Amino acid sequence: MGCGHLFYSTLVTFSVALITYNIIISANAPLKQDFPNPSSSSISVDPVIEMPLERSRRHGAAANKRLFHTAMTASDSVYNTWQCRVMYYWFKKFQNGPNSEMGGFTRILHSGKPDKYMDEIPTFIAQPLPAGMDQGYIVLNRPWAFVQWLEKADIKEEYILMAEPDHIIVKPIPNLSKDGLGAAFPFFYIEPKKYESVLRKYFPKDMGPITNIDPIGNSPVVVGRDSLKKIAPVWMNVSLAMKKDPETDKAFGWVLEMYAYAVASALNGVGNILYKDFMIQVG
Questions:
Q1: pTM of the predicted model as reported, rounded to 2 decimal places
Q2: Mean per-residue pLDDT for 20-34?
Q3: What sequence ranges are listed for the domain Hydroxyproline O-arabinosyltransferase-like (predicted)?
């Protein structure tokens, strides 16, 4: 990609005091200034690839935009609410920018009740899990909240970007998904091969090799709306099953729900294009 087409989004994670943010930005220094094409005409699912040049060329004035709806789950805590307000502010800043395929936006609030920011941030009210079901792991409310939203909301866009309150958008985001595949960031700490014996409880051998499970979480992911409608209930059930199993809970800890999404995606036959430049993690 030439320097004139630096509008691909990535996520940067950094820490300020005790607050962590993921920043959605374009490719910029110190990132590489050029993103070469994949080596073949078809994009492989498993290899970690760089963002293809074709993705910038197709965003001319005559190109048909493939809009995606940005959705993030949130609690009603003061900290989480503040993050949501910051995230939505920057979303609006770049929603209609060059190369953007950013459609609508929804905060999926899983507190079960409205708050005073309903008029500021487009919000869907989801019910939390029954008391005690999350076992103190509040993230388990995320897949259940997505299930409710996908069932009840009128979502116009054909694609969904699953985001989180600690994401800050600083450049317009194009739709990086392709050919029925999702677009996701490969996390170095999601290791299906290492935990094959544990994962086989949820992804049996007749479903294929363990490498069919991508090293991803549910965010950042751009995926087809219809695909996510199939994935979400499985994601929820796998998450709950994993949390109930002591071996799995111990093995995966705070990333348990991320593994559950990766498994659910694989169980539904939805592969992902892995963009190593989608997110940058710095300390």
A1: 0.82
A2: 42
A3: 68-282
